[in-house]
Structures are given as C-alpha cells and as structure tokens.
Design a protein that fits this description.
The protein has helices at 11-18, 52-61, 82-91, 105-116, and strands at 2-5, 26-28, 39-43, 65-72, 95-100. With 118 residues, the protein is α/β, with parallel strands linked by helices. A five-stranded parallel beta sheet has the order 2-1-3-4-5, with helices on both faces.
Length: 118
Amino acid sequence: MNIAYYSVTRQVSRFVKKLNLSDEHVAEISSTLSLSEPFILIIPTYEKDVLQEVWDFMSENAALCQGIIASGNRNFADLYIYTAKDISAEFHVPILYDFEFNGTTEDVDAVNNILESY
C-alpha cells in the first residue's frame, strides 16, 4: 500500500521511516504532489492553517484515499486527533488507527498489519 504523509515536527516522518515500506510507496505531501494510485494518509494534529497543504492535497486526491492514520497527544483530551476527525468527516474517509507522538513498537506493528491488509 502507498502512503502519503505530512510532518510538521518530523514525528510523523520518524514514524513512517519505521514502517515496512520501500521509498517508492512513500510520498511526503507537498503542493505539487498528485497521486494516481490508492493510498493511506498519515498526519499529525494541528490547526487547519498549519495543515492547509494536506487539506489542499485531499481536495484533489481524496477519491484515492483508503483511510487515515493519525498522530496526536492524548493530553489534549477531546482535541486528540481532531485534524484526522475533521478530514475524515469532510472527505468521507475512515480513520484506521491513531498513535501518540512518533509511535511505539506496538503502533508500528499495528500500522504495518493495516498496510498489509490493503
């Protein structure tokens, strides 16, 4: 499975590097990225203006998105992974998994299993 990810503080980037994916299946979201194959989105939790590039990307590519994996901080209670929740609702894409910060070994195993099932 392909993934598209966005990282602000590099925590999501560090998580992605732990996954069993070759570089050809990993794309960092930028203003010029356009995908032609199904993918899973991996994103952190920030205000919409910080992640505007992700929103713009999803506006163009949501039809190919199979699901969202979200990074967040549980200390924020109801605001935990709110960005993923908002994108999920806006683009009708399910949240497949969530983890804190750059993830644990268990999180990496769980996400690898999700990726293998697609």
